[in-house]
Amino acid sequence: MAAGRQTQFSEGGKSKSVMNGAGTSQGQWGRAWKVDWFSLACVIFLLLFAPFIVYYFIMSCDQYSCSLTKPAIDLVTGKASLLDIWHKTPPLTWKAATLYASWVIFQVFLYMLPDFCHKFIPYFRGGVQEGAVTPAGAVLKYEVNGLQAWLITHILWFANAYHFHWFSPTIIFDNWIPLLWCANILGYAVSIFVMIKAYYFPTNAEDRKFTGNFFYDFMMGIEFNPRLGKWFDFKLFFNGRPGIVAWTLINLSYAAKQQELYGQVTNSMILVNVLQGIYVLDFFWNEAWYLKTMDICHDHFGWYLGWGDTVWLPYLYTLQGLYLVYHPVHLATSSAVGILLFGLVGYYIFRMTNHQKDLFRRTDGNCKIWGRKPKYIECSYTSTDGIKHHSKLLTSGFWGVARHFNYTGDLMGSLAYCLCCGFEHILPYFYIIHMTILLVHRCIRDEHRCSSKYGNNWKKYTDAVPYRLIPGLF
Asked: Where are the domains of the chain?
């Protein structure tokens, strides 16, 4: 799932058209217009097996101490049956349903509040912000208040933990599997709702895509920006809330469970909380920037984002903390420092690479990158409406090292999370495997679109910057 990751277009350039407000090529935006057999097979596979994959990972920790092979071996050898495993799985409870419903309602409430953080936090861009131009030519406005929602939520969490004691800090871990059923109900409910909405009461009828294939349209979405009223945007809400706000709370609950079980919180658990906390805070600090990322600018809203953001993201992106509850790892000081530095360097590369592109775009190339005037390749293309556009593809700074060097930094940070867990089990390394597949696929998808868009100019760009992720290798 792509859900929740800050992935900005890797096309390192500034683009403008000769006519204000012109939309991009209908052949370039969003998901596919037509569905080939391979894409359809992938869609059906994910629809059938992605929920099972999440269940398998969580069940393996709950019943098999985070071993991914033991459940399969027990099933093959006859030591256990599917019914045995299912009967040991905690069911949906009213407590979990109440807890989850309250959580979502609270996040909806925070999402609808006007942002105040930008008024007193220097350099923070919040409040009403404009998104990218949609294919129909609309420019949507957003109330950027994710940082405010995160701060309020966590202030209340710590106030409860250290003063009010309304509930145990381990409440998320203690209800983790019953909450999984709630998350699935919400994920499927919102996915079905937005599909019905796309047919009968779309937010903008011109920002829809129909392939004629039910499964593909259900998964990848029909509407580009489904909304209720003026401000409740499904894509922004589910991409950022409730899953990413919950990410750091889930890790804190894991840490609290470690304290309860073992009388201490290991340095590996602290590292996971710190490194992933930096990523989450970065996401909300740059939420206005996120409006120009691939998730918002190209993806439609369907099951892929609706279910992915409510189930896949909070359950599989937090596997390191879950694993450390069952297998506490105390790292040597040198190892802990090394992992921390590796993760911080990855974050620095990720953030500075995107910053260089933003600076280049904002100034139309009239800036300095690494102390020098940036180099770039002038490009032009004509959209299907006959309008000629001009772009500049950046080849300086990190964008001269590799065409997707922001992804490289992202992968370094992802690997750092996993290294915190040692090497006894493969389960916590699912994250780096998943992110590698996801981002390599995005590289290919992004470059296919750019090659079609820029033609020979894209060949000049790839000649100037020959590597995608790792100089000399890939």
From this structure: 31-328, 331-474
What the block records as the tokens of 344 is 């911080």
For residue 394, the surrounding DSSP H or E stretch is strand 388-394
CA distance 158 to 64: 32
Among residues 171, 329, 323, the alpha carbon closest in space to that of 250 is found at 171
Here the tokens at position 262 are 């073992």
**Dist CA 226 CA 48 (whole Å):** 25
Q: Which two tokens stand for residue 110?
A: 């925070």
Alpha-carbon distance 226 to 195, whole Å? Answer: 10
Strands 139-144 and 127-133: what pairing?
A: antiparallel
pLDDT, tens digit, 9 for 90 and up, residues 15-66:
443 322 333 334 445 555 677 888 889 899 999 999 999 999 999 999 999 9
- Tell me, what DSSP letter sits at residue 166? S
What is d(CA 322, CA 269) in angstroms, rounded to the nearest whole number? 10
Output the pTM of the full model: 0.90
With beta carbons less than 8 A apart as the criterion, state whether 103 and 246 touch. Answer: yes
Best CA proximity match to 178, nearest among 114, 59, 262, 97? 97
**To which residue do tokens 């001269």 refer?**
400
Whose structure tokens read 């701060």? Answer: 151
Query: Alpha-carbon distance 454 to 450, whole Å?
Result: 6
Contacts of 275 (CB under 8 A, 6+ apart): 340, 343, 347, 413, 416, 417, 420
d(CA 313, CA 307) in angstroms, rounded, equals: 9
DSSP H or E segment with residue 69:
none
What is the number of alpha carbons within 13 Å of residue 102 lying toward its C-beta? 7
